[in-house]
Each structure stands twice: as structure tokens, then as C-alpha cells.
Amino acid sequence: MWWRRWIGVVNVGYWVSPKLRAPMRRWSRYLRFHGSVSKSPQQRNGNRVNREVKLTHSGKMVVRTVDLRSDTVTKPTEAMRNAMANAEVDDDVLGYDPTAQRLEAEIARIMGKEAGLFVPSGTMGNLISVLTHCQIRGSEIIIGDYSHIHIYENGGISTIGGVHPRTVKNNEDGTMDLDLIEAAIRDPSFEICYPTTRLICLENSHAHSGGRCLSAEYTDKVGELAKKYGLKLHIDGARIFNASVALGVPVHRLVQAADTVSVCLSKGLGAPVGSVIVGSKSFIARAKILRKTLGGGMRQVGVLCAAAFIALQENLVKLEGDHRKAKILAAELNKIKGLKVDIAAVETNIVFCDILKGSKISEEEMIKTLEQHGLLILPEGPLRIRFVIHHQISESDVHYAVSCLQRALGGVAEENGDKSGGRCLSVEYTDKVGDLAKKYGLRLHIDGARIFNASVALGVPIHRLVQAADSVSQALAGVTEENDDTEHLCKTLCCRCAFIPITPCRYRDNNLSSGKMAIVESIPDLPVQDPPGEDFSASDLNWTKFGNEERHDDVALIPYDRVDAFIIGECCNVEYPTRFHIERSRKRSRGSLKEYKHDEYLEYRLYWCSFGPENYGEGGGILPSRRYRLNTRNRAARPQSMRGCTCHFIVKRLYARPSIALLIYNNMRHVNKSGFVCHGPLDRDAIGPGAKKITYISNGIQQQTMSMIYLGIPEENVLAKHIEGIQRYCGSDAKVNSLAAQYVHKLGMIIKRSTHELDLDDQASIRLWVERNKKSVFFYQDTSENNPFILGIQTEWQLQQMIRFGDRSLMAADSTFGIKKLKYPLCTLLVFDSRQHALPVAWIITRTIAKPDVSKWMKALHDRVHAVDPTWKVNGFLTDDAAAEIDPIREIFSCPVLFSLWRIRRSWLRNIIKKCSNIEVQREIFKRLGDIVYSIWDGSDPFVALEELSQDFVDQMAFLQYFKATWVPKFEMWLTTMRTLPLASQEASGAIEAYHVKLKIRLYDDSHLGALQRADWLVHKLTTELHSSYWLDRYADESDSFQNVKEEYIATTSWHRALQIPDAAVTMNCKDNAFAKVLSQKDSNITRLVWNPGSEFAHCDCEWSMQGNLCKHVIKVNMICGNLQSYRPSMSFQSFNEILVSLSRKPVDDSIALDLSTAWTHQMLDQIRKLVELNQSNDIGTIVNNMPLRWVAKKGRTSVGRPSTLALLPSGSNNISSSSAAKKSQKRKRLSRLC
């Protein structure tokens, strides 16, 4: 190759032929050596290293370098270099360097310690810490056998300090068993033989364990053990910030039990150099002397501290992204044959990958092979390699690394997933494609991901290779296409040139009157696009234009389940950050259309930029369709102001193809009617004082920040997440960070100073709150002589969740919370989210349960939902109060009502445990009560069983008094409700109970000063702490962030916890089915006993069940009993079976009841059959075509489901009016005949 010859010429000065001079000049700025040749300033820039063409030691040219050896290989950013150049410095040895002092104080504050000391490296930081604690030579420290201090720091504590390390085995998660640590501590009475133990060392996160994190609880236990024996605790916190982010725990909490911590700034944070050790002031004073002794005393060290300070500010928020990319890398590596990764062990930014023995390649061979492709890694041991992600590694680099490993192991093509082997398309071929594109009026685009490789391989200038193209881009991956037929490639709009997709862009020049028809006709020809990544935007799609040059619509097809990802991507536009709201929506049910076109919809939604369509600025007004003007009292809050933005698009879920969504972008530009940019950083007329300088804070970011503050998360963690959110819109900037810090601090102060008492009088305070929060109130009725107090609360977010999760699903009510303690009891309406957890969507504060009052607030709530989505409908409503009025539910929601036993079960069990001290008596009474409930289906008299229960337990006086006074009067009501209403399942009951328990914990922790007797206190608690808690739970689950919050949220319900128990952990008593044993998953020495298995009234001896709750052990045992014939079915199943049996009972012969029963039965069977067909079929068209003929009229007889050949739109408006008039006249004729 000519470039190899040119390299030789450069090194030895040989003559170059004139034919090679042009290629030399053309390529000289792209080539660099991978060896020890000095680099140019441009090459030293860390932001450009992954985009350079380079040569390896073997002389092979690679396009990019991906360095995954360590997170210490990062290059200083431009901001770091500027900070180093402009740093304020002085002599640090004398203690006068201001930048060093500022950094040390900041790290000490973050770690919750008194003082800090900057040192050149983490190794020196650990050495100084150990020697300062162990000032007597011959002292001993307890340390992990795979810790960094013991293995990777040259034994400095022994060779320099004379300190003896006593190792304890590290577990796979980096911890050391507490028993082993305690056993390793020397007995002081034998100091004549043994060295004296003075220090325990931990490492967090643990590098040799793959970046595993030590929990705060574990560190606390080690700290207690150290204090017990008078020892000190030191933490090697080389990646302590990674551990904090991964665990979702503030960093000061992780090191709270430690006396000293060494914090490395050049690893996860990406500083060029330096570490800081923190501890008490006396410790730092001694450490400073040791630093000078060891040669770590530097003079104008502020130059280095300035870069470290920038790293702390800029890169802390990027650690979560590093962890996410590490998990992506682990998941992809685990798919490669010959490699194995323990994905569960990847907690931070380190990935360990094992090479299986059958791969026939050693770690040394693999490292050399990968280096040829520009991928740099390090070995971790025999047949094990290590990857470390840092902030200068993109997601694209991760996928490139995966493709390199695939090539190393399997010899696949140059790019992962490509089957053309990096073949280059010639100039002549590209010209032919260009000619065909012109012939059909198309445009040619070349994806030049490897265009330089193609130019080098063919020896052809790049401009000649792309001469026929209209546009060229450098993408990272192409579209696979194996067919070399030029005509076929042009028609499919895709071909390849060294992994280069050539994608012509279509533009159809239609007039406006026929534009919609053109869309309808072209839908079958449009490709379905599914861009990679979690989110994507309009810029990631190839749009087909319909209309003319003045006005057109952009159309594309995407999978329906990616619509949310598209909307999120559109909201994250850097130039125009916004949200999109649903301006209009409609729905159809499947099978409702007899004739349909290609663009007919199952669901239709019009999304509009939330800065429009109204314009509340100068010259603007409210749309005629609006009933009220949105709140604009706070003019400085720019996102809440409507600016008349015209950007909007339509999403249609296609009737004929339900898995596909049709996107019709009517206007992509965020401009007002005058054509001016009306919001975002480019808006010249921003609203409010200093709005141009204030960063955009969306409602989502604001809600996230408020939720974290309400939940008591430390301010530094809140600030880090807040900055991460706003940097999606405006990038990283020192001023932005400063303003964000002010915003978070101010918001925190406002929240801390806020109070529920807006007035000394409770009712007056409620009235003020309602006046200020009208958007969050759907019904309010003040106390009067004739009307009781009712307050219905539903925030905008709760309304969205009710529409999202309640439509065609279930709702439930936690009916009477706080009936004894609160001034007004609380009723909560719940929906079941994607994980079947109970999610509060409305709170009703009132004491009345009268039917007229319930109907008022229930109708107001129903009307509010229908104002947003007229097609919204709930399929079932779960109630837990047998005394509640169910007629309003049936009348307003038009759905079946189910009864949940969770409240009755909880009340019975809690009071039995409270009134009876003998656990055997508790079990028997609870079992007998369950048998009474089950007797409602076998025909026996439950009240005889109640009398027998009273006689058998006559010695339990406390229980019998409560039983007769409280339960006996209600038994008939309870049993009647269970007999007449279908019963809810244990999963639903467990979810409602989990919400009830969480509500109790949140509300009853602030009962001082009579707060429970104020309604404004209850409102304040609900709308701040509880609302924030559920918002953060859903955000953590859907965005895969705040991992500790997400894991805690997922494990909220006993049903989910029961699913984590393996079947093998349950042992059934085969003799009399009296009990079952469940082996504890946390401690194998503990076994839980579940009495009366297979029943909703089973009783467990665990702590959670003894509090009256439905525990995971009972649910797990009942799951297994449900599959065994020897146990009776659950009450919900028996209730369902009873309903079916009652429907099938034969009425009186030759009666109307027989006809009605037959008709209902056939109707149910037909609906069930259709539902089964729809669920089992992947093609809705097949079902529609197989439907029987239905004659709807004498004229125009047609087959149901056969697509009409008529045009979608009539030719003019006269036809529309005439057709509507004809329909009206036909309706009048029918009415006249009936009259």
C-alpha cells in the first residue's frame, strides 16, 4: 500500500515519487504513531483522541483508539487546561496556596470530615494515612488479601513504614467477613509475641472485585468493630464517588464510620493528577509532615488542584452515565461466544471478562489482537481481562469495543454485524447509483463511516468517491445490505461503501388538496424505522415530505412501542428544550370499522409544544376553546409561559397495523405565527428579568429536584442530579453550575421554611391553599350547615398516571385511612402501574360516605379525566369497605365492583395478636375465622360457627369482649358483601396494603403538637412528601436511575418479594396440610412456619406478619398450594367460579329468563372467543377477513372489514355538508317512525 511506503519515507528520509506526494499531503494531518513519538497539541486533546486515524506498533492503520485500560488515562479537558493556566497559586508547603486550600476544604466538606490534604497520588495518600495511624514501627494493620494497598502499592507500608499487613480473605463483593476481621485482631496481652493491631483498612469501591461497592451498613459494622477494640478505620476511596452514585447514598454517609479516607481524583473523576486524604485536624497536621518527608510537598500545587476542582464540578454528574455504559458493555460481551461476564457484579465502571478455555486464545494474544484494532485493555489474571469506562468513552466506543472483541474471537468482519467484510465500492458503482437516483428524482446520501479507509484502499481521492452524492455524513455504523444489484439498491434506498449506507431522501411534490390522499396511498411503501438508543428524535429519522414548497407535512413510520422514546427525544432538543402535551386525542376499539383506509387509527393523539398554542406574551391571547387562562402569576418562571409555539405533530396507531405508529409532523420549527423563535436559548425576547442568563429548568427537572429535597436527600446530591438534568439542554458551563447551585439552595430554603399553616384557623388555611392550588383541586366543598367538608386533590402528574394506567384497567380505593386519628379520614384512589404496584392518583379528604356526597366528587373526577381523554374507561373498581356506597361507582364509572379482603384480614390478625398472647391460640382463631368466611359457598350457617368460636375460646376474655362489641355486629355485612361481589386477588390486595403501610409511615412520623387534627397539615404532607416519593419511585424505575430508590420501590409489595423465593425453599407438610415451612433467603438458619396454608387467612411467624400484614411467605406458600389438588382454591377463584356457575344455572323452562340467560351466555362466549383470537393472532387483517358477512342495509351491502375503495376525503366542502344533512334527515325519519 502507498501509505506504508510513505511511512518509511518519513522515518528514513528516502526520495518520494511525485505520484505519492499528493496522497502524502492529503493524509499527513490524519496519521500519527502509537509509539513514543511526541504528539502535537491537537493529538494531546482528550476530546479528539477517539476520532484520529493512527498506526499501531505493527504498522497497521486503525481509524480510532478506544482506551479502556483504566479511568486514569483520561486527558484534561479544555476547562481543566484553562483552570490550570489561570489558577491562583502560592507556596503550598508553607500552607499559602489558595486553590489547594479551597480544594482540600471542599473535599473535606463532601466527605463530612474536618480537614483535607492534597497529595500527588492515591498510593502516597494511603501510605501517609497508614503511617500516621501506625506511628510505632512493627504495628499491624488488617487488610484485604486483594486490596489495592496490599497488591498494587509496592508494599510501601512494610518497606518504608515498617508496618506489618495481616490479610483477611476478600469476598467476591469486596467485603471481608466480620468474624474473620475480629479473629485477626491481636490480643494485647500477647504483645510480647504478636505485633499490635492498630488499624483496619477497607476499599470502596473494590477494584479487584470488579468495582463492587461496600454498603454504608457494612462500613458501619466494621467501624463499630474497630471502636470496640480501640482501632482506627481507614477507607481507600479511590473510586468512592462511583460507589456513592451506584448505591444512591451520599458519599459522606458511606465514610461516616471511617476515621480517615483517601480520595483519588484522577480515577473516576478524571483529574490529571492528585488525591486528597481527609480526617481530623490533628490527623491532617501529622500527615502534612509525613507528606514532606516522603517528597510529596509541592510548591505551587494550585495548578494541579485547579484541574482537580474542575473535575469535581464537571465529571461527578457523569459517573452514572459511565456505570450505564459499563452495564451495556457487560451485557454485550456476555453475548459473545467464548466470553463470560458476571453482569450482576457490574455495579460501577469496571467490567471483568473471563475468556473461556475453549476459545483457544490467551489474554496476552487477545490484548495484542485488540491493539491492532485500536482497543487498549489490561489483563487481570489468567484468562481474564479488565475494561474500565471513563467519561471520555462514548456509547459508540463501547459498541466499537464489542465489535473488536467479536473479530478477535470469531474472525468476523471489520465492523460488528456487517457481512460485507469492509469491501469498498468503486467510483464507477457510486456514479451509477447517482445516475439512477437522478433518473427517479431521488437524492443520494452517503454514510461515510469508513470513507477514509475506502479512499486509502482504492487510492482514490475522497472527493471523487462522493462526487455523485448530494450529501455525506460520517456515521459510526451502517445498514446491512447484501444485494449488489444496483436497481434493487436504489429502490430500497440503501447500499454500502465500506460500511457506508447510501440513503436517498424522498420528497413528493403534491398540492395541498391531495396531500392527505398521498399520505394514505404511500403508507404501505414507507419503511418502518427503529433508530438505536434509548431515545431518539426527528433528526434520527428519514422523513417523507408531502405537500409543496410552501407547506408540507413530514411523515414517518416507527414501532408503536417506541413512541414514548421519540417524544422524550424531541423534548431534549438542545436549542428548543420543551415538553409536549396532548392537545387532542381519540380512540377506537378493534373491529369497530367495517371499512378502513391505510391511515385509519386505533389511537389518535395530537402533541403540541407546551409553549403553545396560546400566546400569553404581547399581542397574544387565549384560544376560544380554552375555558380559563393558565396561571402566569410568576412571570419569571419562563417554562410556564405560553408563547404561541406552532410546533406540533400527530401520532396515529394504525388500525390495520396496530404495532406501527404513523408520525405526521405538521410543523417541526419552534416558532410563533410570525415565524420568530419563541422559546429556548435562541429566543431574543425571553420573559422575565435575566431570563436569557437563566438556564432552562423543565417541569421534570424541577419536580425531580423538589422530590429529592422533600425526601431529605443531601443538598450536594440534589445539586449533582440537578446539574446533570440541565446540562442536557445547555451543556457544561461554570456559570450554569453556579446558577444551578443558587437555584437548588434557594429552592431548598423555600421548602424548609414552608409551613402547612397558612392561617391559624384550619378551615381558613385550607381555603387559602385551595385558592393557590386550583390546578391540583378537582372538587372542593367547604363546611356548612347543609354540606360536609370535602376536598378532592389530584395533581397534573397524578391525572396523567390515572389516564395512563387506569384506562381499560383496574382502579382501587384505600377507603378509610386515619378514621380514628385524623381530623378528616383520607380516601385514596389507586391505579396499578406497570409493575402492578398501587399508585395514588387522587386523594379525597372527607368524613362523609353518603351517596349524594360520594357522587359529587366522583363525578367531578370522572369529568376531569374525560376532559383530557373522552375515551377513557375503567374496567373494574376494587373497594375495601363493605359499608361503602357502590352505586355511584357503577353509575359514574360504568364498571364492575370487586371487594378486597385486605382490610378485614389485617384488622382481624392485628387484633387477634394484640388481644391473645398465646401464638397457638392466635393461629387457631385466625384459621376458624377463615373457615367461617369460606363457608359462604358451602351452605352452612356462619353464625352457628361464630357461636361455637365464642364457646371454644371463652378463656380469652379480652379478645371475646372486643370480638362481640366490634366484629359480631359487622359480620353479616361483611359476609353479604363477600357473597354478592367478586373478590379481588391476593396480588391486588397486597399492593393496596403496601400503599397503606407506606402512607402510615409517612404521615404518622410527624404527630407532634396536634398536627393530626389539622386538615392543612394532611394536605401539605400528601402534596409534598408522599407525592414526591411516588414521583421519584416512578422516575427511578422508568429512567433506570437512583438504583437504590428503584430497588426499594420494586420490592415494595409482598407479592414481588414472594416471587424472589425459589420453590425449593418451601416444604409442605404432607400429613394433614396444617403448616408449611419456608427457608429464609437472608439467613439459611431461619425457617418460617406458615399455618393454614392455601388460605387467605394463613398465619406466619415472621415479624411482618405479626404486625398484621400479608407477608411474602404466606403468598409464596399459597402460590404453590394453588397448583396442588389437596388444597382448596383461593377465595377470589371460588368467587369467580361461583359467578360462572350462577350464570350457567338453568332458569324456569319456557320462560323469558331462559331466553335472557341464553342470550347472555352466547354473548359472553362470543366476546371471549374474539378476545382469545386477538391475543393469539399476530395479524389483525386475518381475523377481520374471516369475520362473517353482516348486512347493514339494502343499499351498499358489503363485507365487514373489507377496505373501501372510496377516497378518504370528498372533493369539496359542499359534499361534506350535504352528506351530514342527509344523515340528519335519515335520523329524523327514523325518529318519526318511532313516534
From TrEMBL:
Its cofactor is pyridoxal 5'-phosphate. Residues 1085-1122 form the SWIM-type domain. InterPro entries: ArAA_b-elim_lyase/Thr_aldolase, Low_specificity_L-TA-like, PyrdxlP-dep_Trfase, PyrdxlP-dep_Trfase_major, PyrdxlP-dep_Trfase_small, Znf_SWIM. Residues 1211-1235 are annotated as: Disordered. Its EC number is 4.1.2.48. SUPFAM superfamilies: PLP-dependent transferases. GO terms for molecular function: threonine aldolase activity; zinc ion binding. Pathway: Amino-acid degradation; L-threonine degradation via aldolase pathway; acetaldehyde and glycine from L-threonine: step 1/1. Signal peptide: none annotated. Keywords: Lyase, Metal-binding, Pyridoxal phosphate, Zinc, Zinc-finger. Residues 1224-1235 have a biased composition (Basic residues). GO terms for biological process: L-threonine catabolic process. The keyword Glycoprotein does not apply. It catalyses: L-threonine = acetaldehyde + glycine; L-allo-threonine = acetaldehyde + glycine. It is an enzyme of class 4 (lyase). Threonine aldolase involved in threonine degradation to glycine. May play a role in the removal of L-allo-threonine. NCBIfam families: GntG_guanitoxin (NF041359). Belongs to the threonine aldolase family. This is low-specificity L-threonine aldolase.
